[in-house]
Design brief:
The structure is a homodimer.
Chain A: E1 3-6, H1 11-22, E2 28-31, H2 39-44, E3 52-55, E4 58-61, H3 63-73, H4 84-118, H5 126-149, H6 160-174, H7 184-194, H8 200-203
Parallel strand pairs in A: 1-2
Antiparallel strand pairs in A: 1-3, 3-4
Domain GST C-terminal (chains A, B): 83-215
Keywords (chains A, B): Transferase
Domain GST N-terminal (chains A, B): 1-78
Chain lengths: 221, 221
Amino acid sequence: MNRLYHVALSPFCRKVRLTLAEKRIEVELVEEKYWDPSPDFLRRNPAGKVPILKIDNRFLPESQAICEYIDEIHPTPALMPRDREARYEVRRLCAWFDDKFNAEVTRKVMGERVWKKIMKKGYPDSKTIKEGLSAIKYHLDYMGWLLDQRRWLAGDQMTLADFAAAAHLSCLDYISDVDWNRQAAVKDWYAKIKSRPAFRSLLQDQLPGLPPAPQYAELDF
Amino acid sequence: MNRLYHVALSPFCRKVRLTLAEKRIEVELVEEKYWDPSPDFLRRNPAGKVPILKIDNRFLPESQAICEYIDEIHPTPALMPRDREARYEVRRLCAWFDDKFNAEVTRKVMGERVWKKIMKKGYPDSKTIKEGLSAIKYHLDYMGWLLDQRRWLAGDQMTLADFAAAAHLSCLDYISDVDWNRQAAVKDWYAKIKSRPAFRSLLQDQLPGLPPAPQYAELDF
């Protein structure tokens, strides 16, 4: 059976989970505490990160490479457009969320509020959290601007870019750090994506000692 | 005319320059001091980063998305393999160098030794440099292990993965921070890639006040 080594509130793992679920590829989820790695884990992935997809007895790391690979071996439903300009746009936006949004928002807010607690690495730093919560406003506005012109983030079809963005926002939503009233277009977009069957497994995640915010699993939020 | 907004010793800009040159796509290079951005620059790229490729009157940011786009619109010579497993491997290795190598080596060594000086942001921190110079050994050994089994990093043909790796190593070589005698296979690989016509423009780079190390432009190093 295929396996995904992951942690519940990692946006990179979530992007892969959404991609697999949208394609109806079944995987067994294996929680992997990568901050306390077993020798076995490092043998599977010398980079020491999650996600790792075990498929056809190979171990594949790197979320973006995994998602594009899955899309190439299971092309339906397509998560990469056929048009070359549109493919560029999907890749640009995936990098936007996985690099820029991650550095400016996710790592600051989730890093301080969630990961320090789970990894037992001290107390949250309120200055860093504040910086993250200030930066998210700009990102929501940018998404709102895109979604005023397009049905989905990268164009008129749902793509990997939507999964990359939703993966980050859903982690922040778990701890209630997304102001859904800031941009109506973003809220509508998230409601659409959240109600997909592929999203269900994410909405069932529970971290021990850190229950999700009340609206987290609600389709009407 | 096509333009590339770049800075000379950025590995991300170099990956794009190598890709463009290998495909014989002419571009005008425009130096862009992104740490002191003009309003014009931020209009071209809200992420405030380099490289940005101006092509057909569009402004394209994000190095990996740019390179894959160039490879799709100018497929010859191919820098992405046709085989899906091989494409995965190229993308995995690009992420290895642009994320992991960058965080563990380039940002530490170049950040302290070069960028602090150029951006006038204080004095180099020797502890950080030491960490970077210690981490590079592991990366050279990993490359050596790959190249003992393959002609190029991702397989038997030269790909974007080789350009990603060479882009980082060439920046470090400018300040003489690569021990080419550590892994014979890596030295042979770098000699092959350094002697390509696509590499020439990189070897002519000169930072004001920071001349390159003597071996930097030598094909016999």
